[in-house]
Amino acid sequence: MPYNATIKAEARYAHDLGDTSEDRLHATYSAILTHWFPTERGYLIDHQLMDKGGKPEYIVVRHGGGTRNTLLIVELKRTSKWHDAGKAAVYEDLVGYIEGRFEVDLTRYDRIFGLGGIGLRWRTCEMEKSGPHELNFLRGWTDDISSDTSYTAFGQFADLVYGI
């Protein structure tokens, strides 16, 4: 089942704006995250919450064991960052944000997932709490997070997050 018409329309709107700030991408990504991680399933989505390691666009948390547990960190960059240096910046930011959450023990889980976005292009990763703090990429860069193909791929990623 593809994303609903509202999500697709918002993604088209963001795309048609051209190179705009990350703020113009927030509605699309927020709608997609809310679709996959609803409160009915125990998830909350924090928006730009400053903590150890910085302030990512979104943090998906789940209550469990008497605490809020970070599961997923989302970092976005504007469309014009679609080049090697922009991809490296997403990588570096995700590493810093995830390491920061591990350092102050903001999750009881042994790993945290990451979602990087440059415009509507996206990729997923995870980092283990023990061992070297390096990102393990789960999916390479994919065009248009609102597409039917991305819907299926994001569903597979969400299943990994659900199973943590």
Give structural attributes.
single chain, 164 residues, alpha+beta, six-stranded mixed beta sheet, 4 helices
Summarize the entry for a quick read.
It contains 4 helices and 6 strands, in the order ααβββαβββα.
Q: Describe it for me?
A:
Helices cover 35% and strands 28% of the residues. With 164 residues, the chain is an alpha+beta fold. Strands 1-2-3-4-5-6 form a 6-stranded mixed beta sheet. Strand 3, helix 3 and strand 4 form a beta-alpha-beta unit. Helix 1 packs antiparallel against helix 2. The longest helix has 20 residues.
**Distance N to C terminus:** 24 Å
Task: Give me the count of strands.
Answer: 6
Structural classification: alpha+beta
What is the overall silhouette?
globular
> Strand fraction band?
25-35%
List the uncertain runs. Answer: none
Strand line-up across the major sheet:
1-2-3-4-5-6
Count of individual helical segments: 4
Mean residue pLDDT: 91
Q: Assembly state here? A: single chain
Cα gyration radius (Å): 15 Å
Largest sheet: 6 strands, mixed
The helix content is: 25-40%
H/E series: HHEEEHEEEH
